[in-house]
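Data availability (excerpt). The following record was deposited with the supplementary files.
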Amino acid sequence: MAIPALAGLLLFILLPFATALVLAFTDLRLGSPLPVNFVGFDQFLHLFDNPGFLRALLNNLLFALIVVPVQTALALALALLLNQGLPGTVAFRTLFFMPVVLPMSLVAVIWSLIYAPGSNGMMNTFLTQASFGLWEARDFLRDPIFALPGIMLLSIWQGVGFQMVILLAGLQSIPQTLYEAASLDGAGRRQQLMHITLPQLRNPLIFVMLITTILAFRLFDQVQIMTRGGPDNATTTVMYEAVQAAFARQQVALASAMTVVFFLLVLTVTWLQRRFTHHEREVA
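Predicted structure:
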């Protein structure tokens, strides 16, 4: 039964990574009539002398450091709210989850319109009214300060519903007898949250944080559609730089080196996250 899964792992993960690893040690360029040569670690050395790639690494790390905890905290708050059994819970759960099923390309186009420059842009209009006229209209996606936070806001809005559904399922699996016993002992809502809810949600929280971290490092669609890495590399990412190197500049070997470094970075981050969170197994 495990053969199809192992075959998929081999064909779609191990084999592409091995191919990229081999190409990273060459000077292969698409369309070049010159023979392919073995260049050792030259491509990797060139990477870390490339300001664009270093900025892409920094942007990826910054994006993950902000989006993962904020999105997880917001998803937990929404899950706790929907778990109260209030009227309209099903409708709100559907509403919050709806952005998850929308294609990222469509979401990016919609938010590009929201971030439209000038006083008539939706976001500028909202901020002007919320600040009682103190806000000055900006071109968010062409501003080095606001471009990356704008993409972060989009990503949080689009992905929070996925985390919310998983955490809501975790909340609904917590035995009510635990809360009843805590109430009899005089525990308030805050104490129940800290000593019952969060410990019981440990495994779902670890899962959603791991998945969100991996997705955060894979940031590409929003950048490609909304900013194309600009302005001044303010929103460029490793995935975007790799695609540009491979298909725009036809530097396949350099792009392969980028993907190898990127894979090892994501693997290290997820391993460290896993190492320090200690996923607990449930005993039946």
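Summary of structural features: The chain has 13 helices and no strands.
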